[in-house]
Write a structure and sequence with these properties.
Blueprint lengths: L9 E7 L5 H14 L4 E5 L7 H10 L4 H25 L3 E5 L2 H10 L4 H7 L8 E6 L2 H9 L20 H19 L6 E4 L4 H15 L15 E2 L2 E2 L1
Parallel strand pairs: 1-3, 1-4, 2-3, 4-5
Antiparallel strand pairs: 6-7
Helix pairs in contact: 1-8, 4-7, 6-7
Length: 236
Amino acid sequence: MRDNTEINGRLIVVEGLDGSGKSTQVSLLRKWLESQDVKVSFTVWNSSELVKKAIRRGKKKEIFTPTTFSLLHCTDFADRYEQMILPQLKAGYIVLADRYVYTAFARDVVRGCDREWVRKIYNFAIEPHISFFFRLPLEVALGRVLIGRSMIKFYEAGMDMGFSVDSKESFKIFQDKISKEYERIIKEFNFEVIDATRPIKEQQDKIREIVSKKIDLYDFKYKNLNIVKFDRRGIL
């Protein structure tokens, strides 16, 4: 990934298994930063309008190969990166990302894509200033996701990999492999590991402590910025 030293803003990302609570925590962090009068923006994995319809159609027909799936998600990320993330960082925003390239580094590799190849197709992206990983025992994460659900979607369950003909069992195997791949990269990318078994408030207090220590939030308050407005396509 590229160096982040020439970026005016700060990029904070959250990663973790489905059910780890990362989305709840990044939402709380966003509200807290906004309450501090900090200019903040937010992006989420697999949300680009450019490829959303293609991904939806492909999933419905269950026709994706691991490589095709990987390239489409990279296209989604590249569009959001060029249209939203990078311009906002250059304008001095704190950008919060619910999943970043590390999601691909874990999921795509588990699907059989070459580890180095996956990293190379994302080498245009900058390294985040802070990367949080929400560590949670697999069984707890699975329990949170599976409770009250009669079925898991085909790709969500990793059914394309042939782990099991049962969607829930396939999901468990898939998530276990993803968990192990995340554990491989924690030290490599200097993740801040959060114990996701702790109470929500305790986790959030720890996150705020780390953010405040690593980022001088005063520099990113409205009164200290040349305000630039954005819509979904980028700078207005």
